[in-house]
């Protein structure tokens, strides 16, 4: 994830959606294509925090994941390896 954050920062992008969410409302944050849960080591401090929203974004400065309202304007990361 650090490589992706560095690449985004080099283009002036500091927040980007990653595709995971809690859209089902079951308090389980998952990837849409595999239904796998997100690994806890990627979260920023005090996250995941569903009252902030149901969608997951990468905070490039903190190099971690956070939750936000799904309709907040952000760039997207379509895929990282």
Short description:
The protein contains 1 helix and 4 strands. With 81 residues, the protein is of the alpha+beta class.
Explain what you see:
The protein is α+β, with helices and mostly antiparallel strands and 81 residues long. It has a single domain (2-76), classed as Mannose-Binding Protein A, Chain A, CATH 3.10.100. 11% of the residues lie in helices and 23% in strands. The chain contains one helix and four strands; from the N terminus they run H-E-E-E-E. It has one helix at 2-10; strands spanning 15-21, 55-59, 64-68, 75-76. A four-stranded mixed β-sheet has the order 3-2-1-4, with no helix packed on it. The longest helix is centred in the first third of the chain and has 9 residues, at 2-10. The N and C termini lie close together (9 Å).
The helicity comes to 10-25%
The low-confidence runs, each spanning 5 or more residues with pLDDT under 50, are: none
- The secondary-structure element order is HEEEE
Mean pLDDT: 85
**Number of H- or I-type helical stretches:** 1
CATH class: Alpha Beta
Would you identify the CATH architecture?
A: Roll
Topology:
Elements lengths: L1 H9 L4 E7 L33 E5 L4 E5 L6 E2 L5
Parallel strand pairs: 1-4
Antiparallel strand pairs: 1-2, 2-3
């Amino acid at each position: 994830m650090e490589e992706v954050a560095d690449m985004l920062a080099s283009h002036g992008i500091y927040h980007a959606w990653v595709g995971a969410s809690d859209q089902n409302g079951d308090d389980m944050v998952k990837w849409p294509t595999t239904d796998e849960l997100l690994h806890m080591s990627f979260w920023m401090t005090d996250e995941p925090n569903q009252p902030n929203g149901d969608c997951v974004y990468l905070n490039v400065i903190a190099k971690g994941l956070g939750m936000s309202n799904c309709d907040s304007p952000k760039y997207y990361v379509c895929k990282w390896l």
